[in-house]
Specification:
The chain is an alpha/beta fold. The chain contains six helices and five strands.
């Protein structure tokens, strides 16, 4: 690899990390709202067209996961339910509902921060994003800024346990209640993300 090739690769890595950091900012918003900190952005033509955080308790709706909210925004932005050519960056491996919506929206590429071995649906428990029988499969990468994503989740659940009135202030949510995740169930790969690494 030549010098210019190396510089181009470094710039590309910095760019995709920037998108995941934008998703982490959304996750922090969820944290500040006493929601499980999961954030998501959707990118098309190198521009963020949608961003959202988990608001399930705030909205009192099981549909208010970060991925679902971001998909809804993106569809409105481009005026189409098909999100062809889009890439989703999400801080935690999607649940079955969100993975199904990703496939239905025809999102091309999904980049994941931390994996969720207990409930993830992009390779950990099942892999809805790459099911051969479906009419659409996604390219999947995992492990991008995984340590940051995992640390935010761990901090949230630690705070939740230490707050005496946590059950009341979060509508009865307890550690592990949201998508069956807590710091014990979140994998944060140290290796750099590789294509389809979530399938292993």
């Amino acid at each position: 690899m030549g010098l210019f090739d190396g510089l181009a690769e470094a710039r590309e890595q910095k760019k995709i990390e920037g998108y995941m950091r934008a998703a982490l900012k959304e996750a922090q918003k969820a944290y500040d709202m006493h929601e499980v900190p999961i954030g998501c952005v959707i990118v098309k033509d190198d521009k963020i067209i949608a961003k959202a955080c988990n608001k399930r308790n705030h909205d009192r709706s099981v549909l208010s996961h970060a991925e679902i909210l971001a998909i809804s925004q993106a569809c409105k932005k481009i005026k189409d339910w098909r999100l062809d050519g889009c890439t989703m960056y999400v801080t935690l491996e999607p649940c079955p509902m969100c993975a199904g919506a990703i496939v239905q929206a025809r999102i091309h590429h999904v980049v994941i921060g931390a994996m969720n071995p207990k409930a993830g649906s992009a390779g950990s428990v099942i892999n809805i994003l790459k099911t051969p029988g479906f009419n659409h499969q996604c390219e999947v990468e995992s492990g991008l800024l995984a340590d940051e994503s995992s640390a935010l989740l761990s901090s949230f659940f630690k705070d939740l346990r230490e707050t005496k009135d946590a059950a009341e202030s979060t509508d009865g949510i307890a550690a592990g209640d949201d998508e069956e995740i807590d710091e014990k169930n979140v994998a944060a790969p140290a290796a750099a993300p590789t294509e389809n690494s979530s399938e292993e």
